[in-house]
Design goal:
The protein has 279 residues and is mainly alpha-helical. It folds into two domains: 12-124; 143-272, Up-down Bundle (Four Helix Bundle (Hemerythrin (Met), subunit A)), CATH 1.20.120. The protein contains twelve helices and two strands, in the order H-H-H-H-H-E-E-H-H-H-H-H-H-H. This is DUF4145 domain-containing protein.
Length: 279
């Protein structure tokens, strides 16, 4: 079992943001003053002072600052904030809270994840905090908008989630390979659902990603720019074969991965809004 990272001493601005999220300001999960102490106890804190009636955020920030030099105590708080058990009455708040925390926590080199409902803290590259370095934020579609089969939509969503995890941990090649796999799965499933005759007599398992990209562009499901760059992603996806990477003497980096994200972003958006008469 992988040991979770131990936090260093967090910046005071980070502690202020953690206090804000705990309090539930800005339409997050709201906690009254006395509920904040109970939350900290559920996180595993001992000897939590009683709420004294001052501003909730100021009081919470003071408590966090008092334990600033004990990173394990702050880690308990962060993990509890990402725990589904904390939001049984408002489960829809969990992803909002995690997203809010990661917005500022990334500057410290950490990110909260919640795979399978098991919160964990992982290290990440602080450069992910800068514009253009995140996983796609302009995604207008979700996979259930494109894929009718619930089981396949769930499987492909897992691929997307795993690509995000690779991205957050600086695993650029792994993320690109996963995105290429996701694109292939989405395109094949879309063609089989909308117009399987486009594949001719070729068995679905033998249809190449190149063919899928070309077919979806030809019938108008993918725009020209997506068609062009999807082939670039296809080439990088083939780095799943180490000898190809050696032959080309190129290792994908942040910039390569950002392009891959944008390609998948645009492809999913195009597929979710097909041109009239194409579905």
């Amino acid at each position: 079992m992988t040991q979770q990272p131990v936090l260093g001493s967090l910046d005071t601005n980070t502690l202020e943001e953690v206090a804000r999220v705990i309090c539930g300001d800005d339409h997050l999960y709201y906690r009254k003053g006395y509920e904040i102490g109970r939350f900290l106890e559920r996180a595993g804190w001992k000897r939590v002072a009683d709420y004294d009636g001052e501003y909730r955020k100021d009081w919470t920030h003071e408590l966090l600052t008092e334990r600033r030099e004990d990173p394990s105590e702050l880690e308990k708080v962060l993990l509890r904030l990402a725990d589904p058990l904390e939001y049984l009455d408002e489960p829809q708040q969990l992803p909002n809270v995690i997203a809010a925390i990661n917005t500022f926590l990334v500057h410290e080199g950490y990110r909260l994840e919640n795979p399978g409902g098991r919160p964990r803290l992982v290290t990440c590259d602080p450069s992910l905090a800068y514009p253009g370095q995140h996983a796609p934020v302009e995604l207008k579609a979700v996979l259930t908008d494109i894929i009718d089969d619930p089981a396949m939509a769930q499987l492909l969503q897992r691929r997307l989630d795993e690509a995000r995890t690779c991205h957050a941990n600086g695993a650029h090649v792994a993320a690109i390979i996963m995105l290429g796999s996701l694109l292939e799965g989405v395109l094949l499933t879309t063609v089989l659902a909308r117009a399987p005759s486009l594949l001719g007599s070729t068995p679905p398992g033998q249809v190449s990603l190149k063919t899928l990209i070309d077919v979806c562009h030809r019938v108008g499901w993918l725009d020209a720019d997506v068609d062009r760059y999807a082939h670039e992603l296809r080439e990088y996806r083939n780095y799943v074969h180490p000898h190809k990477e050696i032959r080309e003497a190129h290792t994908p980096d942040h910039d390569t991965l950002n392009v891959a994200w944008q390609v998948v972003n645009a492809a999913l958006n195009d597929l979710a809004t097909p041109k009239p008469g194409t579905r």
